[in-house]
Write a structure and sequence with these properties.
Blueprint lengths: L15 H9 L1 H8 L1 E3 L5 E3 L4 H15 L4 E6 L6 H15 L4 E6 L2 H16 L16 E3 L7 E6 L13 E5 L7 H9 L9 E6 L7 H12 L4 E3 L6 E3 L1 H4 L3 E4 L25 H12 L6 H13 L5 H7 L4 H8 L6 H8 L7 E11 L5 E9 L6 E4 L9 E6 L18 E7 L4 E8 L3 H14 L4 E4 L5 H10 L6 E4 L23 H14 L3 E2 L2 H8 L1 E3 L5 E3 L6 H15 L20 E6 L9 H9 L1 H4 L1
Parallel strand pairs: 3-8, 3-11, 4-6, 4-7, 7-8, 15-18, 17-20, 19-23
Antiparallel strand pairs: 1-2, 5-6, 9-10, 12-13, 12-14, 14-17, 15-16, 16-17, 21-22
Length: about 625
């Protein structure tokens, strides 16, 4: 992440040529000509604080290399970011002809507030440089010809954002709280040309993880890891300007601001009065993240927690985050902690190849023809297997597949993407997932590929997820006389009444899902499973506890990969190791029985009676 550090604006006396030059700079022009209403309800010239200067310096870094300004800002409350960005857009509109800006706020009240700020800039401009406006829409400032520049304020609730033409400046506020951020940002940002005189700023306080802003932010952080290159001639690190093109992520932590500290009482002798065990834990957490606080800052935090946050430390972390990750954790109910996912993501890498499996006749000794599973490389990235490592001799494997049901990721949006068919195979020796299938093929194609992959990987113990159409995949295993199919344990009172064959395949039910996820959480905490596929980690990041206390994907996201990996963990825990661990040339003999792994089949679907479901989750802690 790149942020430029600078000292807050101070009262420096300039005269003559230096004063004239300063007035022509962006900071100078704004501080000489723009007025704001302060927190004390006084009208005053804009005096930039440290947060505003950091944003300014980051923008100047891109301008230095002739690049468009494009910033992503995670912030705390009351840092003056909107004030600074609106000042930038207003300045560009005022000092350039035919320069159009658009400000988009999360709701009508915020839009009205932003427009009042911009209107104050316009109304309080010095008379000698104040431009004449013409009548425009209710929340738009528009200059008369020949200048014709304008600034429009809109609300994110509108279906279509922007003005329908070329827009040179865009400021989107509180993006994490937009209902349709992805779709609206795509259309809005298309209006901004890739020119050096353009400004695009997306800023927000956090609202959990996995939303559109969060994805853009962390993608930008990842890109900027290659910002500095070593100059072979000088041996020094230098900025690579090509990496600066695109979104520049900025996080503004509360402890960077001088005003966020409170002087200790004179008799405190350097000790924070009223220190609590919870605040001590908060300080220790910060040290673990590389963040240290002065006693004055700790006293500020303690008073804020007690007086403004009702003693709720999570609420304080939400309003005054120390890191971007902390901001997301405090505002979301994430099942997997980001600190563990960050460690797992370090093992992610591109696959060696993409393949599909097929069967081929092979002539052996005495002209005996056998059927052998082979693979061929393909160019498609979906509806295929991503391979990081082929099977190894003397390694046992388990496979799990979650077949798509056509369920939309957002039930309230008919245009949202349906779920996908996902399968994976786990190496029980290396404890990794060396091959993953990902796509939306028809059910028969997915089933055939899953069966062939399990055969190829040393006849892995396998199971489809027995959802509404999982039976079709199970039927493919039966048709192939596959010898290693997972079988659920039946209830004792019905053990003699039902055929074991009716209990093949893993079934996610009210009784099994929460313990299934609990096991996966422990695996993530222990870092005991290596995952190479970044798509899996991305789904882990948007897997949350919903308002009913149930684990699932955030609205608009998928959890197919999460269920697949959770299924692999269950298969590994419950299934015996294969009898023959060598690379199998021919299919082993049909086993007389299947694995009975301890999962009780309650014969209830996951989406059962609401009252029963509520009680089941209420008792789940006792069950665990």
């Amino acid at each position: 992440m790149v942020t430029a550090f600078a000292q807050p604006h101070t009262e420096t006396v300039l005269s003559g040529e230096k004063l004239a030059a300063y007035k022509q700079t962006s900071l100078g022009w704004q501080s000489q000509n723009l007025k704001i209403v302060t927190k004390k309800s006084k009208l005053a010239l804009l005096n930039h604080n440290i947060a505003q200067i950091k944003v300014h310096n980051a923008a100047q870094l891109q301008r230095k290399y002739g690049l468009p300004v494009s910033l992503l800002i995670y912030k705390a409350r009351q840092e003056g970011i909107s004030t600074k960005v609106e000042a930038d857009l207003f300045e560009m509109m005022n000092r350039n002809e035919n320069w159009h800006a658009c400000v988009v706020s999360v709701d009508d009240d915020s839009t009205a507030k932003v427009f009042r700020m911009c209107d104050t800039y316009q109304q309080e401009m010095p008379k000698d440089i104040k431009l004449r406006t013409v009548k425009a829409s209710a929340k738009e400032i528009k200059y008369a010809a020949p200048h014709r520049s304008s600034m429009l304020c809109q609300t994110a609730g509108k279906k279509v954002l922007g003005r329908g033409g070329t827009t040179k400046g865009v400021h989107a506020t509180e993006v994490c709280f937009w209902a349709n951020a992805k779709r609206q940002l795509v259309s809005l940002l298309q209006e901004v040309p890739d020119e050096p005189d353009t400004i695009t700023v997306l800023e927000t306080t956090a609202n959990g993880t996995g939303n559109e802003f969060s994805k853009r932010y962390w993608a930008a952080v990842k890109r900027l890891r290659g910002l500095y290159k070593v100059n072979p001639e000088t041996g020094k690190k230098e900025i690579d300007p090509t990496v600066l093109r695109g979104d520049l992520p900025i996080f503004l932590s509360w402890q960077d601001f001088p005003e966020y500290q409170v002087e200790l009482p004179k008799n405190a002798k350097g000790n924070v009065p009223g220190m609590t065990p919870e605040m001590e834990d908060y300080v220790k957490e910060g040290l673990a993240m590389g963040v240290s606080l002065t006693p004055e800052q700790i006293y500020f935090a303690l008073l804020k927690v007690q007086n403004k946050c009702g003693g709720d430390y999570d609420l304080f972390k939400q309003e005054y985050p120390r890191t971007a990750r902390e901001a997301e954790i405090a505002t979301g109910r994430m099942v997997f902690r980001p600190i563990h996912l960050d460690i797992m993501e370090q093992r992610c890498k591109p696959p060696l190849m993409y393949v599909e499996f097929y069967e081929d006749e092979v002539e052996g000794v005495d002209n005996e023809v056998t059927i052998k599973v082979k693979y061929r490389e393909v160019s498609k990235r979906v509806n295929s297997w991503s391979v990081w490592r082929l099977p190894e001799k003397n390694h046992s494997y388990v496979g799990f597949g979650d077949v798509a049901e056509g369920v939309l990721c957002d039930p309230h949006d008919k245009k949202s993407a349906p779920d996908r068919s996902v399968a994976g195979i786990m190496d029980r020796v290396r404890h990794d997932v060396p091959i993953v299938y990902y796509g939306r093929p028809d059910t028969i194609e997915f089933a055939d590929q899953f069966v062939l992959a399990c055969k190829y990987y040393n006849y892995a113990w396998a199971s489809p997820e027995m959802n509404s159409i999982g039976q079709s995949v199970l039927d493919a295993f039966k048709r192939a006389d596959y010898p290693y199919i997972y079988q659920r344990e039946v209830k004792e009172d019905s053990y003699q009444k039902k055929d074991h064959k009716d209990k093949l395949g893993w079934k996610t039910t009210l009784l099994t899902k929460k313990p299934m996820i609990a096991d996966l959480v422990q695996v993530v905490i222990d870092h005991s499973l290596i995952i190479y596929d970044i798509r899996i980690i991305e789904e882990f990041r948007v897997f949350i506890w919903n308002s009913q206390g149930k684990p699932g994907a955030s609205v608009g996201e998928h959890d197919d990969c999460v269920i697949m990996v959770a299924g692999l963990v269950q298969m590994h825990q419950r299934c015996p190791y294969n009898d023959d661990l060598s690379l199998t040339e021919v299919a082993p003999e049909k086993r007389g029985h299947f694995a009975v792994a301890g999962q009780v089949d309650d014969d209830d679907d996951l989406d059962g009676d609401d009252e029963f479901e509520s009680q089941m989750y209420a008792d789940m802690d006792d069950f665990e």
